[in-house]
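[Solved] Which block belongs to which protein?

Original post:
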Amino acid sequence: MTKQAWGIILLSSVLFLQAEGEIRSLSQVFVQGGGLLDSDEDKCLDTIIFSIIIPDKPTAAEIALAADISARANFESLAQDMALVKKESQLAKNSESESLILVGSRLRLLQNLKAKGRLPFPDLGPSQGAVFLVNFDGQTCLAVAAGSDEALLGTGRAFFLRWPYFWEIWGREDGPTYFRLESDLAKFWEEEKIEAPETAVRAALY
């Protein structure tokens, strides 16, 4: 898998009201109101509000990536949650207040969406992977898919372990991040006096 990520930017046609705990951009995975909450308003994130969904019979790569995402989420939160990873058959028990991170192209949910033509990258090659937003039951969820187990693990680690950076980690204040991309685009619209809807990073292809 090549060490290059392409961010695909989609502009919302209208300004949306984001539900608490719903990830509406790749910049919002580990932030207040996106994947995490500050439940006691002490300016420290302390609650993880998403579940990580894997197939009922996961491969070693799917399990490893789910564990990596769980570890990163718990690193970002004061309170630990060791039960973030769930099998797809447990989706019916999922709380409506939780967002979902979907791991692997083998998930029936993603296969059904692919059959309906609702995936941004329906045919990923064995060396390709993608992280993208997808709508499920009226809620926006984050998905990571790939054309092979090796690409899935590489894609997931490149995104979740380096987030909020596109690739190289420069430090808290420097380097290309999803936040900076959205901010730079908003500034450009303003400087050019262009009325533009809210900007969100909807997908990254690896």
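(Second protein starts here: sequence line, then its structure tokens.)
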Amino acid sequence: MQALKAGGNPGPLAEMEFWRSKATNLLSVQEQLQSDKVRKVVRVLEFTKSTYFPPFNRLIKEVGTACAEANDNAKHLRALDNFFSRMHACESFPTLAAEFRPTMHAIVLIWKHSRFYNTPARLATLVREICNELIDQARKYGARASAHSRALRSPARTRAPRPVRPGRSGVQVRGCARRLCVRRVRRGRSDRRDAARVRPVQGGLL
């Protein structure tokens, strides 16, 4: 997330590491704020009706909320760790297309059940980082295919073999990812609308 704001092109593993690191740091801060020494200071500020008490008390609550958000996001994103790791270490780019369906399904489940990672901004960031990783893997695949094609060309008069076309696989994989993403998001929205229509029955049984 920070790398995106700085103009970089991070992959989804950076998103997972960001929330894991943030959860660890905020947990450390929260433990310090909940220590006996800090609690005594807060009680003194409250008892003396100090002007420092309201902002300090608000800070403690904000740290608690941010810590809960970071822990919840890190926990839900952990379900995507295996796919993102395989994507990053991929050696056969066309095989990634088979991984998109379960991955998009997991992203929709995160969107539906996470307390905090369920906003358009969060999902847009994650999808953008997935696209960054796909672009990077497609670039590597194209470079390997071009190098392999050049190696197969004979310097003699024999006819050179037909060169590999790396772009076609990249287009197919990106198209598959886009279709599945749109389909899963639409299905998630439909499920949310159906859940919103359900209302608890008022009164007892007849």
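Accepted answer:
You had them paired correctly. Confirming on the second one: The longest helix spans residues 120-152.
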